[in-house]
Write a structure and sequence with these properties.
alpha+beta
Length: 73
């Protein structure tokens, strides 16, 4: 894969990580199961990453782009 494409993808992922700082999803947990009677409980899970992760991705993408241009000159 071309290093220019890798740099652009890293920068795009960094910007997306900065805009969307996390996501959440719901799982269903069975609490009681007695014959035909079932009681379920929905559990919310949140996945978040710190803002410095997006900064690292953006800086890495810029570094890849800059080193790519230096190597071609």
């Amino acid at each position: 894969m071309n290093t220019k494409v890798i740099g652009i993808v890293l920068i795009a992922l960094g910007i997306l990580a900065l805009v969307y700082s996390g996501f959440s999803y719901v799982t269903t947990q069975k609490v009681v199961d007695i014959g035909p009677i079932q009681v379920n409980h929905d559990v919310d899970h949140t996945v978040q990453w710190p803002p410095f992760v997006s900064a690292i991705l953006i800086v890495a993408g810029v570094v890849v782009l800059v080193t790519n241009k230096k190597g071609q000159a």
